[in-house]
Amino acid sequence: MTATQNDGLGRILEGSAQALAQAKAEFEATPIDQDWSADLPAPRLARARTIARPVEVSAPGTFSKNSIRTLRLEPTDLSGWWLERCDIPDSRPIKVSIRNVWTTGEIVSNIVLRSGSVHNYVRLVEHIIALKAGMDVDNLLIKLDSGDPPLFNAGSKELVEAINSAGRKELATPVRYFTVKERVSLLTPHNGLLQIDPAEEGSLRLDIDCVRNFPNAIGQQRIRFVNNERSFLHGSTARTNTTARQKLLVTTFGKLFPESRNLGYNSKNVLIAGKRRYSNEPTHMHEGKSLEAAWHRAVLDLLAALALIDEGRFVGKIIDYKGGHYPDVEMVKLLYAYDLLKEV
């Protein structure tokens, strides 16, 4: 397979050079609201880690708001992160991997992983698996009582706290780091840009420059940071966002569709953006402006896609402008299809 080459955009994996150049110009013209790129990166680790002891966390279901759903996190020697449906007899664990992505949703945008039987799936996994790319846990077994994970009120805060309370156990296997062989670019469905650069020689940093651009209260938001404990903990508490119109549709016509009929979104666990103002109280304020949408996108959505690179941790530099789950997953698929990943 081949892809178009462009000096400023690198290897173009999807979209035209003209549309990508326009998206990059819009991205570069967006002022930076918050810049944590001067921070130290996450520590360089030699050995893989798992948690030291099992721990559980529960909340109302994402797609079954009247039922409490529980995640049981257990240490494992299995390489990578695994999801096990305990409610399905004899089902095999689902590895967190690009190879097991079933869909990124239509009515409700979310990453769904599946392995084997069509019944052996887990929906809206992004807010769980983002922790694989953002925390120091390389191997983990997550047991679920259904394919519907819990929905927390503050992003993935409770899940992060549960993992931290479990402690760590170092394993004999080494940590593996991967980056791209060259700059790659992809056009998103909303004429945005997803661009990845290789890590610098001798560096194991993951730098992210993320822009949200909406014609509503969210408006333009740009954050730049290096992935480390401070930035991940900050972003992990940011809620997903929706428009007031989408929220109304889900609670009315959405009741006709299985994908959204029992969706547990409410004014506490999602940020609701109206045309000129938020319908509920935004968080992640910086100099009088909420950057909650940008932090959620960069940490709990974008890092989730990097977690699908199942062989190890990803390092490099990422530009994200008007991104979403579909282009995230498409990018990772194309990195494998074009053999563009290399071990550092």
UniProtKB/TrEMBL annotation:
Q: What is its EC number?
A: 3.5.1.108
Cofactor dependence is on:
Zn(2+)
GO molecular-function annotation terms? metal ion binding; UDP-3-O-acyl-N-acetylglucosamine deacetylase activity
Q: Which reaction does it catalyse?
A: a UDP-3-O-[(3R)-3-hydroxyacyl]-N-acetyl-alpha-D-glucosamine + H2O = a UDP-3-O-[(3R)-3-hydroxyacyl]-alpha-D-glucosamine + acetate
Q: Which PANTHER family match?
A: UDP-3-O-ACYL-N-ACETYLGLUCOSAMINE DEACETYLASE 1, MITOCHONDRIAL-RELATED
Top-rank taxon of the source lineage equals Bacteria
UniProt keyword annotation of Lipid metabolism present: yes
Q: What is this protein called?
A: UDP-3-O-acyl-N-acetylglucosamine deacetylase
Regions crossing the membrane: none
Example of a GO biological process term = lipid A biosynthetic process
User: Where would one find the signal peptide in this protein?
Assistant: none
Task: Give the enzyme's main class according to its UniProt record, as a single word.
Answer: hydrolase
Pathway(s) annotated for this protein in UniProt: Glycolipid biosynthesis; lipid IV(A) biosynthesis; lipid IV(A) from (3R)-3-hydroxytetradecanoyl-[acyl-carrier-protein] and UDP-N-acetyl-alpha-D-glucosamine: step 2/6
